[in-house]
Amino acid sequence: PGVLANVVAQGDSAELGCRILVDDKLVAENFAEGRHAQAFCLDKAA
User: Fold this and answer.
1) Beta bridge partners of residue 42, listed in sequence order
2) What distance in Å separates the CA atoms of residue 13 and residue 7, rounded to the nearest whole number?
3) In angstroms, how far is CA 39 from the centroid of its own chain?
4) Which pLDDT score, from 0 to 100, does residue 26 have?
5) Opening angle at CA 33, ends 28 and 36, nearest 5
6) Host domain of residue 38
7) Contact indicator for 17, 30 with CB cutoff of 8 Å
8) pTM (predicted TM-score)
9) What is the tens place of the pLDDT at every residue in 1-46?
10) pLDDT score of 20
11) How many angstroms separate the CA atoms of 20 and 42, rounded?
12) Domain total for the chain?
């Protein structure tokens, strides 16, 4: 069986980020800067 983790973050600050941890191990990370920043993190585990 597979597992899919998807995180989308959006805000009105100048900086924003998302992070996915699996068993305390970083598997996905993304940061964005700018007006109405939006960040997207995706992890596909088999």
Assistant:
1) 6
2) 18
3) 6
4) 92
5) 105
6) 3-45
7) yes
8) 0.66
9) 577 888 887 777 788 888 888 889 998 899 999 887 888 888 887 4
10) 86
11) 8
12) 1
Residue given tokens 């305390």 in the structure block: 24
Tokens of 21: 């941890």
Nearest one of 27, 4, 32 to 16, comparing CA atoms: 32
**Per residue, what are the HEC states of 1-46?**
CCEEEEEEEECCCCEEEEEEEECCEEEEEEEEECCCCEEEEEEEEC
Q: In residues, how long is the chain?
A: 46
Query: Rounded to a whole number, what is the distance in angstroms from the first to the last CA of the chain?
Result: 7
Amino acid 43 reads D
Helix (H, G, I), strand (E, B) or coil at 23: coil
